[in-house]
Amino acid sequence: MKNKLIISLLAVLLCMGTAFSQARIILPDSSQITGDPDSLDLLPRGSSHLDHLIHDHGAEADSLQKLAQMTIWHLDARTGNRMPAVSDTLLHNFQHSTLPDSYSIAMGFLGPLGSPAISKIFLDREETETFLFNNAYSHYLKDPEKLLFVNTRIPYSRLNYYRAGSAQTREERFDARLTSNFGKSLNVGLDVDLINARGFYAQQSVKHNNFSFFGNYLSDRLEAHALLHLGSITHFENGGITDEQFITDPKAVGESFTSLDIPVRFNDTWNTLKNNRYFLSGRYNLGYHELPQDSLRKGVGTFVPVASIGFSTQFTQQHRRFLSYDTAYVNIEGVQMQQIDRFYANRYYEGAVDDSIHFTSLKNSVSLSLREGFKEWVKFGLSAFLEYDLRNYSMRDTTGTGYRSYRENAVTVGGVLNKQQGENLLFNLQADLGVVGVNLGEFRAMGDLETGFNLAGKRTTLTAEAYIKNLRPKHLQENYYSKYFRWDHDLGDIRRVYIGGKIHIPFTQTTVSAGVENLQNHIYYGADKMIAQEGGNIQVLTARIDQKLRLGVFNWDNQVVYQTSSNQEVIPLPTLSIYSNMYLKTKIVNELSLQLGVDAHYHTKYYAPGYEPALLQFYNQREREIGDYPIATVYANMHLKQTRFFLMFYNVAPQVLNKNESFSLPGYPVNPFIFKLGLSVNLHN
C-alpha cells in the first residue's frame, strides 16, 4: 500500500502541467527603517543587497508579499543597529522548513524534531557558546539577535501547526506570533514555540516550551527594543539503539517488531536545559529637521538622524541537568554498578547520576554611532561599543559531594564600519578586542564586501568575505566536573583565519562560492569523549554551487557542497553533500498554488560525529561510517490566500530501495517512513 501511494504521487508529479507564475518580496533597506518616526510610511524600493539576501533564503514567494505596510528587521544587540530581514512566511519549500534536515544541506541529529543536532557542513557551524550545552540546540534557541522585530500598520498573527505519527509516536509542533502596533511608534508581540515529539524509538521523547514577549518603540529621537524569553527543553536520552541490524537487516532479527521495540542503551535518563533571557536596548538619536523646499509647507520638516548614543543590557539564566533513574544494579565482571554506569569507564561519585550546572551572564554595553547617508557625502556608517560581561558558574565540585562556584568577567571594545546603501559597493566590517578579564587578548576582525554588475538586465553580485579570530577557550572547556567526565586543562588560544567569495548570477539562477579556513589549536572531543586540543594547523576547503533549473512548471533545485579537511581525525567531514529538490510549481485555480515534488539529502560516507548524552556534546568517533544513503521525502505544498498547508511522506527511500541505511549519526536512525502534515495561517486585519 505504501509503495502504491508513493508511485501515485510520483505519477502525478511527472504528468501534471499548467501555467506558472512567480513572485518575490522586496524589503526596505537600513536607511528606510532608521530615518523616519513611522517606518511604515516608507515604501520598499529596490536593493541589490536585499535581492541577494532574499535569494540566499530562497524567498521566491512570501505569503506576506502584498502586505507592504509591514517592516521586519534583526537587531545588533551591542550597537542597536537594525538590519533588514526576510520574513518567516515563505511559500516555496514550506514543508522542508519543518524538518531538522532543513537547517543545513547535511545535518546530524538524533531523529526527533527538537533533538540535539550538528551541521555536517563545517562553515555552517557557529562559534562555541560560553554555555557549551547550548550548541546542540542552537537551531531552536531564541536570543535577541535572532528575533524578528516588527512594525505593522494592522494587527498580524501567524499560526503554524505540524504533525506526524500515531498517538503513541506523535511528533507535533505549534508556533505562533501575535503582534500589533499601538500608534505609529510602539509595537508589542508574543512568540510561542512548542515542540512535543514522543519519538519513534524507545526513550526518545523531546519537549520544548518557548515563550517570547517582545516590543519596540521608534520615534525621531528615541529607539527602544525589549525581549523577555522563557524557554525549557526536556529530552529523554536512549543512548542510541543497541543493534543497527534492526534497521539495516530486519529480516535477520527473525521476529516481528516495531521501531518502539528496538532495544536501546538507556532507560529513564534525560537532559534538561533552561534558557531565560531578559534584554533591553535603547538608542537616542542626535540630528536635525530638514525643511522642505515647498514654502506652502513651511515649518514642517523631516528629522534626519546624524549620530546615536545607545545602551543595552541583557541578563541570561541557563541551567543544564543530566539525570538518570536507570539505577538497577548489575554485576559486570565481578563489579557491582548501576545499569547506566556500565557504559562509562569512570565514576567520580557514587549514587545516581545527577549532574547540574547553573550559568548566569549579565551584559551591559554602551555605543556611539555615526549614521550612514545623513548627507550625500557621508557614504558609510560607523559604530563603536564598550561591553562588560559578568558571568557566574555553579557545578559539582571535585569530590562530588557539593557544589562549587566560579565568577569571571570580560570587557570588550569594538566597532562596526559599514555601507549598506547604493549598488556599486557595499561592505560591513566588524572588530572587537578583549581588554580586561578572561577574554584579555581575544580578538575578532570580520568583514564582507559586495559589488556587482548587470548581466542580461539582471544584477549579478560578487561577494568577498574574510575573518581573523584569536579566541580564548571557554571556562567549561577547561574546567568540567561530573560523574563520568572530569578535566582541568590550560588550553591555548584558538586561531582561525578564513577567506572566501561568492558570485550570484540571477540570469542563470546560479550561485557559486568557495572558501578556505586555517585553524590552529582547534578544540574538539576525541574518540575517548574527552576534550582535546590539536596544536597543529588544519585547513578546511569548501566549495558550493546552488543551481536552479526551470522549464515551464518543472523545477529542479540543487545544492552541492564539496569539503576537504587536512586532518579528518580532528575535523571529519563528508567529501560531497547534496540537497536536490525536483518539483512542479503551478496554480490549479486563481487562488490555489501547488508545489508537488520529491527531494533528498545525501552525503558520502565518513566517520560522522558520535553523540554523548552525559556531555550533551558531539565527539569524533572512528568506529562507524555514516552516509551514501538518501533521506528523501515526497510532498505536496499548497497555498490558498492566507493559508499554507502541506502533505508529506518522510524517509521514502527504504520503501523503494533494497537496503535501509537511514542513519543520521552512529546508533541514531532518522524517523522511519511516516506521513506528516502541516498548516500555517496568516491573519492580518
Written overview of the protein:
The chain is mainly beta. It has a single domain, classed as Maltoporin, Chain A. Helices cover 5% and strands 52% of the residues. It is built from five helices and 35 strands. The protein has helices spanning 2-15, 48-56, 245-248, 475-478, 653-656, and strands spanning 70-75, 82-84, 107-109, 117-119, 149-152, 156-164, 171-182, 186-197, 206-218, 222-236, 269-290, 302-324, 329-332, 335-338, 354-370, 381-396, 403-419, 426-437, 443-455, 458-471, 479-481, 486-488, 494-505, 510-525, 531-551, 554-565, 576-587, 592-603, 610-612, 617-619, 631-640, 643-650, 663-665, 668-669, 674-684. The chain has a 22-stranded antiparallel barrel. A three-stranded antiparallel sheet has the order 2-1-5, with no helix packed on it. Strand 21 (479-481) and strand 22 form a beta hairpin. The longest helix has 14 residues, at 2-15. The model is unreliable at 4-60 (pLDDT under 50).
